[in-house]
Structures are given as C-alpha cells and as structure tokens.
Amino acid sequence: MPFKPLTDKERAEVEALDIELYDVRQVAAALKVTERSVMNYLKSGKLKGRKISGRWRFTRSDIEAYINGDN
Predict the structure, then answer these.
(1) Which of 21, 22, 16, 20 has the alpha carbon at shortest distance from 35?
(2) Which domain holds residue 63?
(3) Which of 39, 62, 66, 69 could, after both became Cys, cross-link 58 (CB 3.0–4.6 A)?
(4) What is the pLDDT of residue 14?
(5) Residue at 45 is within a domain
(6) Confidence at 49, pLDDT banded by 50, 70, 90
C-alpha cells in the first residue's frame, strides 16, 4: 500500500498526544549498545517499535518495556 500523508486534522491529533519518538541512534545511546544491537532486539521481538516513513521509531514506553523485560 502506498504511503498516505497525514491530513492536517490527523497531524494535529498526533501532536495533541504529545508523544515523543526516538530513533535507533537515540535508543542505542540510551541503552549504551550499538545501533546494530537495537536492530537485533527489534528482529528478535525483545524491543517493540514502529516504522514511520521508512524509519524505526520508539516511544518511551517501548524503551521502558525493554528495560523492564516486559516483552
């Protein structure tokens, strides 16, 4: 399915949620591991994330769940 950009209304709703997203580099730095390790955690299901515009993004709760072993 081709990428469908957000409408102005959808964008406003997302911004209202005030969810901060982190990229692979930021997660790797926070966990003190390599970016490759973060990708391996994703592949194995140890870390949850989502692809947005072709790039992996993570919420604080994704990272905390990994740290707490809630996978």
Answers:
(1) 22
(2) 20-68
(3) 62
(4) 66
(5) yes
(6) very high
Predicted TM-score (pTM) of this structure: 0.72
Question: What is the Cα–Cα distance from 19 to 5, expressed in whole angstroms?
Answer: 18
**Residue 21 amino acid letter:** L
Q: Please report the pLDDT score of residue 25 as a whole number.
A: 96
pLDDT recorded at residue 27: 96
63 domain residue, yes or no:
yes
* 60-66 long-range Cβ contacts below 8 angstroms, 24+ apart: 60/20, 60/22, 63/22, 63/27, 63/30, 63/31, 66/31, 66/41
Q: Domain count for the chain, please give it.
A: 1
Closest CA relative to residue 24, chosen from 7, 41, 12: 41
